[in-house]
Amino acid sequence: MKILITIILVATALNSYAADGYISGVGVESCGDILAAVNNHDIDEERLESWTQGYFSGANIAYGLRSKSGDVNTGSTVLPSRLMALVKQKCEAKIDYAYAKAVDEVYFELRVAGQ
Questions:
Q1: Domain span at residue 101?
Q2: What's the whole-model pTM score?
Q3: On the CB side of 77, how many CA atoms lie within 13 Å of its CA?
Q4: Which of 15, 66, 74, 76 has the fewest C-beta atoms lying within 10 Å of its C-beta?
Q5: How far is CA 35 from the centre of its chain?
């Protein structure tokens, strides 16, 4: 139950974080815009992958600082291509989401699954 509450709080906070400048780069773009840019080759997919992995790294550090064990490595066992496929699926299902929100939801889904 604690994890579900955390997911809800983080997901609702992301929009205000983006508005306040806490999230920048491709993270503030909508999933629809990101998908269109990828399809039109207007954005380098390596840039998206790098941003996504950076988000995971930052989230792991933030949660690791609050963790009793300090060991949070969500996504470390997932191949980058699989990670990006999961984010793409999330974006396709939620095209109005900010890219950061889609990445965040994938992060928490993997975290809950112990991956």
A1: 2-112
A2: 0.80
A3: 8
A4: 66
A5: 15
